[in-house]
């Protein structure tokens, strides 16, 4: 909520198993009265995993694609962030995914007193702002694309991130914390076992 001056706060996560799908026919564009259409059959060319860090102050995204999404790749991704912001206090917000809590990552963080981790509660992925970026890239690039190789998919993902970073905007909450808590309270009351 109030990081030290000249500190940087990143929301970090990975979007795993992004498939390079090649459709048998090109997508048919929308026409008046019709939605966009695509063929049901496709060919898989492999997968990639996108590791991303969203700077909450600017909306800028740092991203890297890897073939897998293990602690080893997560560590490489963190090394890349550290190389860009070596002498800066760094706060990262991330979920409780097993990869984030391995001894490899814990030891790496323990050796870096300028790094502080804040874990989001279970089932609260919406608190991690990079999830909004993942929704954006999925809707605008990944879901609509035709990719004949993993290399093409990775190139398109990185191109999207570069384009996003030309005019990034920080995420702004439109509801207050009290509004969000009241909404959760109403949801829980409506879905309690006594009501069902």
Descriptive account of the structure:
- This protein is α/β, with parallel strands linked by helices.
- 34% of the residues lie in helices and 23% in strands.
- The chain has helices spanning 71-84, 103-110, 130-142, 150-166, 177-190, and strands spanning 8-23, 42-55, 61-66, 90-94, 115-119.
- Strands 3-2-1-4-5 form a 5-stranded mixed sheet.
- Strand 4 (90-94), helix 2 (103-110) and strand 5 form a beta-alpha-beta unit.
- The longest helix is centred in the last third of the chain and has 17 residues, at 150-166.
- The chain is globular, with a radius of gyration of 19 Å.
- The two termini are 38 Å apart.
Q: How are the strands of the largest sheet arranged?
A: 3-2-1-4-5
User: What is the beta-strand fraction?
Assistant: 15-25%
Question: Using DSSP, what is the number of strands?
Answer: 5
Shape: globular
Q: What low-confidence regions span 5 or more consecutive residues with pLDDT below 50?
A: none
Helical amount? 25-40%
Count of DSSP H/I helices: 5
Which keywords apply here?
single chain, 5 strands, 23% strand, globular
Write a concise synopsis of the structure shown.
The protein has five helices and five strands. By secondary structure, it is an alpha/beta fold. A five-stranded mixed beta sheet has the order 3-2-1-4-5.
Topology diagram in text:
Layout: E1 8-23, E2 42-55, E3 61-66, H1 71-84, E4 90-94, H2 103-110, E5 115-119, H3 130-142, H4 150-166, H5 177-190
Parallel strand pairs: 1-4, 4-5
Antiparallel strand pairs: 1-2, 2-3
């Amino acid at each position: 909520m109030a990081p030290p001056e000249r500190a940087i706060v990143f929301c970090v996560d990975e979007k795993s198993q992004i498939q390079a799908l090649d459709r048998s026919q090109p997508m048919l564009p929308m026409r008046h009265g019709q939605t966009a259409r695509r063929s049901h059959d496709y060919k898989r060319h492999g997968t990639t995993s996108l590791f991303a860090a969203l700077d909450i102050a600017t909306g800028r995204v740092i991203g890297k694609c890897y073939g897998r999404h293990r602690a080893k790749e997560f560590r490489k991704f963190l090394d890349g962030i550290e190389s860009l912001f070596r002498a800066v206090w760094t706060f990262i917000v991330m979920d409780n995914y097993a990869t984030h809590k391995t001894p490899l990552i814990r030891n790496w963080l323990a050796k870096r007193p300028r790094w502080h981790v804040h874990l989001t509660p279970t089932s609260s992925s919406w608190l991690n702002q990079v999830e909004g970026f993942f929704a954006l890239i999925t809707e605008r690039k990944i879901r609509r694309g035709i990719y004949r190789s993993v290399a093409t998919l990775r190139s398109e993902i990185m191109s999207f991130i570069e384009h996003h970073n030309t005019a990034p905007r920080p995420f702004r909450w439109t509801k207050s914390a009290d509004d969000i808590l009241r909404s959760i309270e109403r949801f829980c009351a409506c879905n309690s076992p006594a009501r069902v």
